[in-house]
Task: structure prediction
Amino acid sequence: MRWSRTRTRTRTRPRRRARDRGRDRGQVAIEYLGFLPILLLVGLAGIQVGVIAYAAQQAGTGARAAARAASADDPDHVLPDPEAAGKTAMSDWVARRSEVSESGGVATVTVHIPSLVPFWDFDDVRRTATMPVPRKDQP
Result:
């Protein structure tokens, strides 16, 4: 603040602010652009966690269906084979990325998880289910 000739105070700050205001334009937009990649990565990571949980749930469903089909006493072969039963029980996009194997009533489903976040790869999800297989000598 400075004094004028009449000894009244005048403020010089508003003039300086009006002059500097032109330089501050767009500052928020630049800050937002700098923060946007971080915000996108956090959003994609949240979606990725959901994809992993959904793939694990679908793998468990497919393993139970494959084990159930393997343990069924089906002399007429009306039921599908365990691999087809496991893939049918899962949603289409998960079934395309899965492998179903069965051995003695134990079914294992392995699902490859797609990566949404760049440079972040995930291991496959593997679920196993067991059903009792009837023996041939039991009625």
Observations:
- The chain has one domain: 28-130.
